[in-house]
Design brief:
Elements: H1 13-23, H2 31-45, E1 53-57, H3 63-70, E2 74-79, H4 82-94, E3 102-104, E4 118-124, H5 132-145, E5 146-155, H6 175-185, H7 206-215, E6 218-221, E7 240-247, E8 250-257, H8 260-265, E9 276-283
Amino acid sequence: MAHLEPLKGKYIYDPIAQDYRRKTEQVDGGYARWLGKALPYIVQHYGLSAHPRLLDFGCGTGELTVLMNVLGFQTTGIDVHEKHLELARLLAEDNGLPSSTFVQSQEQGRLPFPNDSFDIVTLFVVLEHLSDEVLAWLLPELRRVCCGVIYVLVPNKLQTRDDHTGLRFVPWMPRALATWYIKLRGERYRYAISKDGGWDVYYRSFKRIEQQFAGAGLRIAFPPDDIIFPPLREAGPIHRVGLTFPLMGRRFSLGFPLPVRTLSRLGWPKQSLYPYLNLFFVSR
């Protein structure tokens, strides 16, 4: 919590603090139930080793890396931020794990692992923080070090509210406009984890994500609905774009419906309308 002090007074403080509590199970966040079902499913469905090796790419301060180890999955966390990794190593020590559980990555170049080092690679709410330039070298590297499944969890661009600032329609804006708009709204709404402090969120459509991974020789698949995160009962499919507000004990919406049938005919699967995309990628 001391690590979060500089964020006090900003929109992002409360969501991050709450998420830390959920990920460390100080309150029931459902993370253990989700991973306790999702990881065995991946192992069984894709015929992976009974004792799979996992890489948690962009592990941050390491809560999910440690949780996956506690659940019995040998997991290594990697991140570019040394300050985050210092906290991650403390968390590892508190849970009886070696400091070598966490590895620092370079911003560009080759990942520090041999070919086929891992059966599963996870990118949990990481993809949206990676520029196209980073993805150009990273995706081939992930394919090189992973002999099984890459699991991506990323916010859907179709959402109207940005998770990082709470501002409406930021995900829909061209990135230059979004950067200008966030700056205009003032200090309360600023948030970035980039070293230069610049806005580092890159919203991509489902189709754009599919194309970028395909360019690295990775094809897309979807997990069953009962193992995605967050569960559909908490965050249902996006069928309407606009605002929802309470009035006289009822809820009203202003906006317009998405052309779900048209999107389906154009090849957009139902999972592409979920507020958070849960995506599996395997080598072609």
